[in-house]
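Async update (no meeting this week)

Hi team, since we skipped the sync, here's where things stand on the single-chain job. The sequence we agreed to prioritize is pasted below, unchanged from the tracker. I ran it this morning and attached the output directly underneath so nobody has to dig for it. Comments welcome in thread, and please keep replies under the output.
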Amino acid sequence: MTAVHLPPPLEPVAPPARRRSWPPALRLLLGEPAGALCAAALAPAGGRPIRLRATGTTVRAGGGATVRYVAEVTWADGRRSRERLAATTGGTIPHGATLLEGTVDGARTAAGAWRWPWDPALPALAWAARPGAAAARLAELGVADGGVRVRARSYRPGRRAVLEVQTGAGPLFLKVVRPSAADGLALRHALLGGAVPVPPVLARTPDGALVLRGLAGTPLRVLLAGEAAALPGPEAIDALLDALPATVPGPQRPGPLARVLEHAAVLGQVAPQLRPRLARLAAALDAADPGEHPEVPVHGDFHEAQLLVDDGAVVGLLDVDTAGRGHRIDDWATLLAPLALQATSAPAARYRDELVEAALRRWPAAQLRARVAAALLGLATGPFRVLEPAWMVRTEERVALAERWAPGSRRRGRSV
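Output:
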């Protein structure tokens, strides 16, 4: 008799009653079909998953989803290993993914899956994530010689990855994007270089990898988690943003208020019990006076993890993919939102209050608060995105904080 190997069940991330209210794509990727999908992605290489856990999600307002997994895998030669996989639905399925269809509520839903680091949309990732292949390619490019150690720092399936590479001469970073985006990103670094402290591009490859020099400094997010550190004041923040050159290409960057409906829709899909509150909050932010603000160069995704600091000075500005034209008040709002959320120590709370007071001297309170509330609503998608064990509790806490910042709220925090 031939043994039949069933795909492993996915470890649950929510009770069945809650999952039933999710959109079909999410139920497909976080439900029973996920095991078969990951098994199909591993089968061509001779692997069979025996345990499967979801580690992260991206939910789109239209109902599509992308999920990352960790699988314990057995191989034909008896080896066992831990492998990372990803799966996505809808129009984001890249050519070359393993395809599978599942039925949810009687409707056929297609999904595509792949095994890390062979992301079909990011061909450079296949060599960048493997030390031997990375060392060989970096030697060919003339930017490193000898063995390397590679550590994945971030990964958005089908979109981008950042890998830290330790070489004998110091750290490098490999930013892997879709090949069609590499030239534009390299140009953005070149235009910003010399004006603001962005990492210089040492090399780029036709398959979508940029080799960036590592910068000195400590992320502001790390410093805020400590008890005492010299931090950049409001003047230093403004000086950095003032230095952004007007020649940065790209369309006008949408601010936090432009994405309120999108974030509310995503949250309503995974936490339907919050829909009435989300509708009221979205309506309040939509009715808020945005004010008239000049169009200036902006970072576009300006928050505490993007700033490298040394003795109170900003010595590095990261992730300039989103740099373009926009409103200065929006960059400040996206900086203040995580500070409002994460100020857990006394120094961090004092720093938050200092920046809030400086921002309120520049802009009307209602205009600033509406933008911070909108940015907090975006951050409320985070606990489910990384599948925190208590993601529902954390989501509700962040929605409540956004409500307190919204104009007209009767429950204002001390720094609002």
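Quick observations from my side:
The chain has a mean pLDDT of 92.
The longest helix spans residues 346-362.
Reply here if anything looks off.
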